[in-house]
Structures are given as C-alpha cells and as structure tokens.
Amino acid sequence: MSAKEITPQEAQALVENEGYIHLDVRTEAEFEAGHPAGAYNIPVMFRDPVAMQMVPNPDFLSQVEANFSKDTKVVVGCRSGGRSARAQMMMLEAGYGEVINQLHGWEARRTPDGQVLPGWSMDDNLPKETGNPEGRSFAALRDQAKNG
C-alpha cells in the first residue's frame, strides 16, 4: 500500500485520460465555492458549529463505499493536501487499490521556507466549477449511501 502524490495538472490528466474520478473531501461550503470540474464531494471532516473546529466525518468510509467500488481509480483533493492525505490512507486501508493524493489541494500549500505551491484554483488551464452539481454533491452521495 503506497501513498502516491501528484500535482493538480497530473491529477487532471488522470481524470481526462485514465478514467480516474476526482473526490473532493472538503466541506460542503468549500466545495460549493469552487472545485475541480466533475469532482464528487464527500467531506472527510466537518466544521463543528459549537466548538468551531474540524471533526471527523464518522461515515466517510461507508459513504465512499456506497458510491464507489473498491476498484474505482480515485484522485483525492482538499484545500491544501492534509485532509486528502488522511482520506487517501483511510481508503487504502479499507481496500481501495488506486487512490492518489493531489498535492497542494484547491488553494495552495506553503513550504516551511514560505514558498507557495499553487493549488488547482491557481491554474487558469484547469477546469473549475461552483455549486453543488446534481449527483456529485455531498447531499446526493450521502442520500445514495443511506438508500443503498
């Protein structure tokens, strides 16, 4: 079980040419504000409105498993790469064979020396969309998981 990581441009190439899906594991609000075109949304973490901090989605794996078979080729992405790395490890440990973490996420990541590594949203050549697309929003995927 190896944890592969790729750039946003490499992620798009896998989606376009190799049959991968893009799974955005950010919150619903983050996804709605902007995401890779064609991406699906299942948050690995939620913002707790009382504590105002992120808490794990206890149903993440069951929601993923209800919507995507274990042989689905998946690129996972988030805001800057941390949540998607967590989702990647969870999915690999659950038996998914091909799960690749998209580095730098949607926005960007900073290196310890302050260098900005651009995310998906910073590349004008990568396709983007906003809103909650039918069949790919968290609400739709959550309902699919509940209704089987």
Describe this structure in words.
The protein has 148 residues and is α/β, with parallel strands linked by helices. The protein has a single domain, classed as 3-Layer(aba) Sandwich (Oxidized Rhodanese, domain 1). Helix content is 31%, strand content 24%. It has helices at 8-17, 28-33, 60-67, 82-93, 138-147; strands spanning 4-6, 21-24, 35-36, 40-41, 45-48, 53-56, 74-77, 99-102, 108-110, 116-118, 128-129. Helix 4 links the parallel strand 7 (74-77) and strand 8. Helix 3 (60-67) packs across helix 5 (138-147). The longest helix is centred in the middle third of the chain and has 12 residues, at 82-93. The model has no long low-confidence stretch (mean pLDDT 94).
Question: What descriptive keywords fit this protein?
Answer:
148 residues; alpha/beta; Oxidized Rhodanese, domain 1; five-stranded parallel β-sheet; two-stranded antiparallel sheet; 11 strands
